[in-house]
Write a structure and sequence with these properties.
91 residues, mainly alpha
Length: 91
């Protein structure tokens, strides 16, 4: 999901690198920290903590395209309303 997120952010012009080599270059600092925290030792509690961190990070990264879509739709609606207002005032 992170690779897709990076692709969407860069119009698929940049690579996330083999096995996420360049993730750090594209992720926000907090996202990078969470990603690093998914790599853990063999301690039972740490493994579970890592799993929940991974789930939270996935949810955030997967929602980004939806958030962008909502923002774009909002901006398009504003543009449409402006155009309609201009046309209304021209007649």
């Amino acid at each position: 999901m992170i690779e897709w997120n990076i692709g969407i952010k860069t119009d698929f012009l940049r690579s996330a690198g083999k096995h996420g080599k360049y993730f750090e270059d594209f992720l926000e600092k907090d996202e990078w920290r969470e990603f690093i925290e998914t790599y853990t030792n063999a301690d039972y509690e740490c493994i579970w903590d890592s799993l929940f961190i991974m789930s939270d990070l996935f949810r955030k990264v997967a929602l980004l395209p939806i958030i962008l879509d909502l923002y774009i739709r909002m901006m398009m609606t504003k543009m449409l309303l402006l155009i309609l207002n201009v046309l209304k005032n021209c007649h």
